[in-house]
Amino acid sequence: MGLSIGLDTAVKALRAHQLAVDVASHNIANAQTPGFSRQRVLLRPVGLDGSDHYSRDALLGRPGFGVDARDVNRVRDTFMDFQARQAFSGQGQYGALATPLRNAEVVFNDPSDDGLSSLLGKFWSAWHDLTNDPESSAARTALVHATTTFTMRLQAAEGQLTQQRTDLNQEVAGIGNEINAYAAEVATLNLQIKQVELNGDMANDLRDRRDLILDELSKLADIHYSEADTGEVTVYMGTHELVFGTSARTVQAVDDITDPGMLKLIFTMDNDAVQVSSGELRGVLDARDQAFPDLIAKLNTLASGLINSVNSLHRTGYGLDGVTTGLDFFTGADASDIAINTALSGSPSSIGAAGAAGAPGDPSNALAIANLQLAANMIAGTAATSLVYGETLSAGNTLTALNVAGTLQPGTYAIIENPPLSGTLELQLNGNTIGTATPVAAGPGSFNITFTSGAATVATLTVNATAAYSAAAQVADLTTAGNNSLQVENSASTFYGNVVSVLGADVNRAVGLQESSGLLADHIDSLRESVHGVSIDEEVTNLSSAQHAYNAAARIITTIDDMLDTLINRTGATR
Amino acid sequence: MRLSEQSRAHNQVAYMSAAAERADRVQRQLSTNRRIDRASDDPSGAALAMQHRKNIAFEAQMRRNLQNGTAFLNVTESALDSATDVLQRARELTVQGSNDTLGASEKQNVAAELDQLIQQLAQVANTNFGGVYIFSGHQTQTAAYNVAGAPPVAITWQGDSGLRTRRISAQDSVAANVIGDDAFGDIFDDLIVLRDNLQANAPGATVGNSLADIDRALDRVLNTRADVGARLNRLEATTYRSEETDTNLQELRAEIEDIDIAETIIKFTAAQNALEAALGAIGQTSNLSLLNYLR
Hints:
The structure holds two protein chains of two kinds. Chain A is α+β, with helices and mostly antiparallel strands.
C-alpha cells in the first residue's frame, strides 16, 4: 500500500507543479494585457479522507496524501476596483470638459495681435481716422474694410463655437453607442461567467474582461454595480438598471424637444432620460449645454450691443453728399449675422460721418461713434415705438416693449429714460414679472435691472407702470435714439475682455481638475495594478521553484521505482 | 510597493512625458517670447494684458489724431502767417496812399498793388489742404470765399462755423480748424473800399481812415494765430504725454505677457536636465530583470 500511495502522491505533485508552470506561463504571456489579473494556483495538502490531512496508519506513521491543485484563482481587490472606477468617472468628466474649452480658447485667440480684441480696436480706430478726414474716400473705404474684417471674424468665432457645440452633440450620440456596446458585452460575459462557474470552475479571464469593460463604462458615466451569488453583475446608471443578469438595456439618442437641434440620451425601454453626474457624458453635456451656449450668448450680447449702439447714432448722421441719412450701419441682430450694411459697403460715401445735413466736412457723428469706444456701456436693445412724446401713463399702462436681440447675461442693466419719469415701473421679461424698478435719481434717470438667474433669452422686456404717474409725467418720444434704451454694463472691449478672461479661468479650472482627477485615477490604478499586475521577476521565481519541485517529485518516482525494483527483483529470488 | 510590468511601463512613460511636457512648455515660452499665450495660462494676467493692449492701440490712434490735427493746424498757421504779411504790406501802402503829396497816377499804382494783395489774401483764405478748404468750417468742399469779378468787386464768405473736432486723449478733444470768418472778418470789404478810394484819387484823410480797419484785421489774425499756436502747444504736450503713456503701457504689458529671458533659459536648462535624467534612468532600469541573473 505504502509504495503505491507514494507514487500517487508524486504524480499529484508532478501535476500540481506542471500546473504552476502553466499558470506562470499564462501570467507571463499576459504581462502586458490590459486588465489582466495575475493568477495563482491554490495548493492544498490532501489528507486520507479528503479533508483531514493525515493518514491514521499506526504502523506507517502519519504521512498525507500529497497536494491538491485544483483551483486557479485570480488576485484581485474588488474594493480598489470600486475606487478606481469612481476616479475614472471624474477623469472622464473633466477631460471631456477641458478639451472643448481649450478649443474654444483657440477660437478667441486672445491676448494677441490679431485676436478679436485687436480687430475691435481697429474698428474704432477707423472711425477716428474718418473723424480726422471726413471727406476722404480712403478713410471711408478703410472703415468698410476694418468693419468687414471684424464682423467676419465675429461671425467666424460664433460659427466655430456653434460647430464645436454640434460636434459635442454628435459625441453624445457616440457615447450612447459605446454605452450600448459595453452593456451588451457585460450581459454576454455575465452569461458565460455564470455557465463556467456553475461547474465549480473559476472564470478568471472572463472576469478580467468584464472588469475591464466596467472600467471603460465608468469612464463614460458614473455607474454603480453589484455582484450576485451567481457571479452576474447588475450595472446601474443613474436610477436605471443598465445590465441585469444576462440582459442589457439600450440607451438611445433622440431629439430633445426642450432644446431644438440637440440630442438627449434616453432608455429605450421607458423613454426616461439618462441621468449622470460624472463621466465623459457629464463633461460633454456640461460643455454642450452650459459652457458653449454661454460663450455664444456672450458673443451675441457683444454683437447686438455694438449693432444697437452704433446704429442708433449712425441713423442720425449724414453722408458725404449731405443728404443721405437714416441708414443703419450694421445689419443683422447678433454675432451670427452681424455685417456692415451693404448700402454703405457699396457706397462708402454714404457713411454718416456728418452730424448735420449739407456739411461734408462735419466729422461730429463719426466722432460720436468713435467715442462709443470709451462709453461706459452698450445699448442692448432699443425701444419699440408704441408711445410718443407727450402721452401720459396711468397705472397698468404699458410703457414700452424693449426689443432685445439675443440673450441677456446676468448683470445690471439700465433703462435710460429721457426726460425722467417718476413712479415705479414693473419689469416683465417674456411676460414674467422679474421685478420693479424705480428711478435711480431725479434728473435724466435710469432704472437698474439686475438679472440674478442664468442667461435669459429675451424676446421682449416689458416695462409697465404700476403706480399712477403724476399728470405731468410724460414719456419721451421713444423713436429718439438713446431714449428708453436698455443698456449692457461695460463697453464693448471691456465686455469682450471679461469674456476672454472668464473663459481663460474656466479653461484653467477645467484643466486643473482634469489633471488632479487624472493624478488620482493614476494613483489608484497603480495601487490596483500593484495588486493584480504581473511581475516577470516574480513569475520567473515561481517558474523556477515549480521547476525545482517538479524535479524533486520526479526524483521521488525514480526513488520509489528503485525501491519497487529492489522489492520485486532482488527480494526472495530463487535461482 | 509591489511593482508589476504594466505599472513599471506606465510609470516610465508618465515620468518621461511629464519631464518632456515641462521642457516643451518652457521651450514654447522661449520661442514665442511670451509667458501668456492663451488666457488660461494666467487668466487675471491675460485680462490685464488685454486691457494694456487695448490702451496701447488707443494711444496709438490718439497720436494719429494728434499728428493729423497738427498737420492741419500747421497749414492753418502758415496761411495765417502769409495773411499777416499781406496785411502788413497793405498797411504800408495805406500809409503811403494817405500822403496827400501823391498824385492820381501814383495812387493808382498803389491801388494796383493793393489789388494784387487782395487777390493774394483771397487765395490764402481759400487755402486747400488735401482736398479740404481749411477755412470753410464744415463746407470743406466749397471755397471759403467767393471772389466775384476780376479785379474783384466783392469777396463773400460762404463757409459755416462748423468745427472739425477730434479726440486727442481719453479726456480731451480739440478742433483742428479755424473759421475763416473769425480770422478774416470784414477785411476783404475794407480792402476793396480802400482800393476803390485810391483808384478814385480820394483825399489822403479818407484813405487814412482805412488804417483802423487794417489794424483791426491784423489784431484779428494775430489773435487767431495765438489761438492756433496755443492749440499746437496743447497737441504737442498731449503727444508727448501719449508717448510717455505708451512707453509705460508697453512696459506693463511686457511685464505681464513676456518672459524673463535669463530666468526662462535657466528653467529650460533645468527642464532639459530633468528630461535627460528621466530618459537615462529608464535606460538603466528597463534592462533590469531577474532573467539576466539566471542561467
